Amino acid sequence: MRRARDIQDNLGDGLQELIDSAEALLEELRDAKDPAVETLRAKLRRTLKSASSRLQSFRPDMSELTSQTVQSTMSFVRRDPWRAIALGALAVVALGILAHASGDED
Questions:
Q1: pTM of this prediction exceeds 0.85
Q2: Where on the phi/psi map is residue 77: left (φ > 0), alpha (ψ -120 to 50), or beta?
Q3: Rounded to 10 degrees, what is the CA torsion of 99, 72, 70, 57?
Q4: How far apart (Å, rounded) are the C-alpha atoms in residues 104 and 106?
Q5: Which candidate, 17, 25, 31, 77, has a CA 20 to 30 Å from the CA of 37?
Q6: How far apart are CA 62 and CA 85, in angstroms?
Q7: What are the two backbone dihedrals, phi and then psi, of residue 48, each rounded to the nearest 5 degrees?
Q8: What is the DSSP letter of 34?
């Protein structure tokens, strides 16, 4: 569960960094008077506002989804541990085959 939360936090932090960079760019363009720059600034403001609101709504949803996924997985493993082991082994074999196949293309 901790690993999933770390992934969620990293994703949210990455999106926040992107928003911050775009806001810095917007600030740098503040004094430009060219009509094309004015249009770009307006579009960038709308995009930033949308991205910020989506990020704020994304965090609680991801937290709940992460929690539900971990709980469901743990319940499955407790209920049927041998099937969970078999599925894990099958996934490892499938990933190995895919990795080997992609290595042959080089």
A1: no
A2: alpha
A3: 100
A4: 6
A5: 17
A6: 27
A7: -65, -40
A8: -
For residue 44, give the amino acid letter. L
Confidence at residue 105, expressed as pLDDT on a 0 to 100 scale: 58
What's the Cα-to-Cα distance from 102 to each of 2, 84, 106, rounded to whole Å?
31, 27, 7
Here the tokens at position 75 are 């319940």
Residue 79 has a pLDDT of 92
Cβ 41 vs Cβ 29: under 8 Å: yes
How far is the C-alpha of 67 from the C-alpha of 34, rounded, in Å? Answer: 49
**Splitting the chain (106 residues) into consecutive groups of 10 residues, what average pLDDT does each group show?**
64 76 79 80 81 72 75 88 88 87 67
Residue 49 confidence (pLDDT):
81
Tokens for 80, please give them: 């049927």
Looking at this protein, which amino acid is placed at residue 89?
A
